[in-house]
UniProtKB/TrEMBL annotation:
Cross-referenced Pfam families: HTH_30, PucR
Positions of the PucR C-terminal helix-turn-helix domain: 462-520
Domain Purine catabolism PurC-like: from-to ranges: 9-127
Protein name (Swiss-Prot/TrEMBL): PucR family transcriptional regulator ligand-binding domain-containing protein
InterPro entries, alphabetized: CdaR-like_regulators, PucR_C-HTH_dom, PucR_C-HTH_sf, PucR_dom
């Protein structure tokens, strides 16, 4: 397990027979990653930490101030220790250097006669390289054993138990806020102590605690922490932890994949649920059979328009659902998915308070949009429609119906930042009802036809001016800036509008009607474009 060698082991090797440890004797357990010969004073940019420095003192000779400066730099760079040859360039070790080294438990080893630095570095480097090779061999063996277990096991506990046994450390796994696993199991007081140590380690680095998140489909799904009681953790421990986390991610992904495939088999029941066939008691019984202990506070349906995978390859769709599930789970939703024709329907069952469901849903959708889907397929361009939030699960058909209407309305919206939530589409919902039960084109024409005809006849821009003027609440200065025209030109256009629409077109009731008709005109324009595409 040790990929490096301690100073205590080094001083027992060849060429260290006649030495004297004159300072920092309590730091002889420091690990050495490399040996470096240094004969200059400014060395901050030359060291990376844990180097054993060999020197004859040429850089500072018998200057105590330079010697102290040299030692301070070694301590700041976290060098392992200093070996100095006395007699060649330096005759004594100043007391202030010894005091500084003792304060920081920084070992200073003195050679009382000339020694071959080249043989010392060759000997120690050979040992370090051999240890590194052994580490690689051990890691390969560990990885092979993990791969064998992945083929045989059905639960992830064996992976974490294997890591605990192999490293002889305490292992803790956090799958979510309430699911903590300990390997081996520990008394309640010990568990609380370990959790407290983990929290402290977030702000202050601990030599005996290491952790790594388990990433699934671009999101942190879990976390594995290892605690050592009697030794500092080495890079080997970190490498073993990394291999363990990778194997755990594979196993968890396989479990989630199986669950997702199982959920797909529930599609007929889900369809009936969306159609309002099932009653409240039946729904709760069925959901309890799928996930015991699942407590819900309402639900909402989301319809996603996406392109299905062709050539019979279904795995990408399954991983897309898995990926979205990992996001929504973190925001307090239990996700059910079902494919309905060319749409993906998401039933977001709320597990937390119903008061902030929308804020959490917005954050979850934002994360979904920002990240790349499985197979490098971006879903940032996918359209979503979110229905009404319902408190009784048997009313899910209402949420489904309004989600489909919200998706249809967002497709016809002119604003790029249009809300996907049905409850936010106030005017568009009114337009939809009018369009279904009346001749919306005729109504729009009654209000705007004279302005449109004027623009067509004289190549004018009155309609654009009317939009901007209303959007700026009648502010001529802001309107002119928005249209990039001088005020005199704007005054001339407003006069034309007053002749066509009447001098009262900015009065409250008429102004509201004009704003609504402008929105309706855009709505009809996009509706016609969608109709052409479908034809």
């Amino acid at each position: 397990m040790k990929s490096y060698i301690s100073i205590e082991e080094i001083v027992k090797r060849k060429h260290f027979e006649h030495i004297e440890v004159i300072a920092g004797i309590e730091g002889l357990d420091r690990l050495v990653k490399w040996v470096h010969v240094v004969e200059v004073i400014q060395i901050r940019n030359l060291l990376r930490g844990n180097e054993l420095i060999l020197t004859t003192g040429l850089g500072f000779k018998d200057d105590p101030s330079l010697f102290v400066q040299f030692i301070q730099q070694l301590i700041e760079c976290e060098a392992a220790g200093l070996c100095i040859e006395i007699g060649t360039n330096t005759s004594t070790i100043p007391q202030e250097v010894i005091d500084l080294a003792n304060t920081h438990q920084f070992p200073i080893i003195m050679f009382n006669h000339e020694v071959p630095f080249v043989e010392i570095t060759q000997d120690i480097h050979s040992t370090l390289i051999n240890k590194q090779y052994q580490v690689i061999t051990d890691l390969e063996y560990y990885s092979q054993q993990l791969n064998k277990k992945l083929l045989e096991i059905s639960e992830y506990d064996e992976i974490l138990t294997f890591c605990q046994t192999y490293l002889n450390v305490q292992v803790m796994a956090r799958l979510n806020e309430n699911d903590l696993r300990f390997y081996p199991d520990a008394p309640k007081r010990e568990k609380q102590k370990l959790m407290k140590e983990r929290e402290c380690a977030k702000s202050i680095k601990q030599a005996r605690i290491a952790w790594q998140p388990v990433m699934l489909l671009g999101n942190e799904y879990a976390e594995v922490i290892i605690f050592s009681k009697d030794r500092d953790l080495t890079e080997y421990d970190y490498l073993i932890l990394d291999r363990t986390v990778t194997a755990l991610a594979q196993q968890l992904l396989r479990i989630l994949y199986v669950e997702e495939r199982k959920n797909a088999e529930e599609s007929q029941w889900m369809l009936d649920w969306l159609e309002g066939v099932h009653r409240e008691e039946i729904i709760h019984e069925h959901l309890a059979s799928l996930e015991p202990g699942l407590e819900l506070n309402g639900a909402v349906v989301c319809v996603c328009k996406y392109q299905p995978v062709k050539h019979g390859v279904e795995s990408d769709c399954t991983y897309l659902k898995l990926w979205m599930r990992t996001v929504f789970e973190q925001y307090g939703f239990h996700l059910f998915t079902i494919d309905v024709r060319q749409d993906l329907v998401l039933v977001l069952c709320n597990k937390r308070s119903a008061e902030d469901w929308k804020e959490r849903a917005v954050e979850a959708f934002e994360r979904v949009r920002q990240q790349e889907g499985t197979g490098k397929k971006s879903i940032s361009a996918y359209k979503f429609g979110v229905g009404k939030f319902i408190y009784q699960l048997e009313e899910i058909s209402l949420s489904y119906k309004t989600a489909r209407e919200a998706l249809l309305l967002t497709n016809r919206a002119t604003k790029k930042d249009m809300s996907m939530f049905y409850d936010d589409l106030h005017l568009y919902r009114i337009l939809s009802v009018i369009h279904q039960h009346a001749n919306l084109d005729e109504i729009v024409s009654d209000y705007l036809a004279p302005v449109i005809e004027y623009d067509q006849r004289y190549n004018g821009q009155l309609l654009e001016t009317l939009k901007a003027y209303l959007a700026c609440s009648g502010s001529k200065q802001e309107t002119a800036k928005r249209l990039f025209i001088v005020r005199q030109t704007l005054y001339h256009r407003i006069e034309k509008l007053e002749k066509i629409l009447g001098t009262d077109f900015m009065e409250a009731e008429k102004r509201l009607a004009l704003e609504f008709m402008l929105l309706a005109k855009d709505y009809l324009s996009i509706d016609k474009q969608l109709h052409k595409r479908s034809v």
